[in-house]
Amino acid sequence: MKQMIIAVSLLLAFGVGCDEGQDHQLPQDRQLPNGTKLFGERTLKDGATKVERVEFPNGEKAFDVAKFPDGSDKAGRSEFPDGKKWFDLTRLPDGTQKAKRSELPSGEKYFDMTLLPDGTIKIRRDELPNGQKNFEAGSGHEGEVQPCLSLSGTRTCRPDAGRSSR
Fold this sequence. Notes:
This protein has about 170 residues and is mainly β. The protein has one helix at about 1-15; strands at about 30, 35-45, 50-55, 60-65, 75-80, 85-90, 95-105, 110-115, 120-125, 135, 150, 155.
């Protein structure tokens, strides 16, 4: 009887027979037909897919990626070939993208940036390389600086803002 208690205690101590909270699928590495490479991919019980690192053919890299059954996905960090870095990126099924922080190669940083499907960019605040915090200056498409509307601390920018109509 004493040996049985010791054996059961050892089994419980090492987690044998208990799979609560554990993933049974080991991370896998694979390459998709379009050239995208997935490292450390696994599917969770709730249907979400997690990937440690994704490398796209265009040079973009994403780290700590989770794709959810509703079509949204999140990445802890995304690095682009032109030197941009986005942190805590969320992409929604409607095409909206949100980043808690975005860093440009010039040293400029955007905080709480939202890119809407129509091309509108909303930035809560940006910091210039000299440390100046900016709530009013504009930022448009592809790094162009353009005037924006300031709505209670949030800058709403459109790619065509500030351009004269032709």
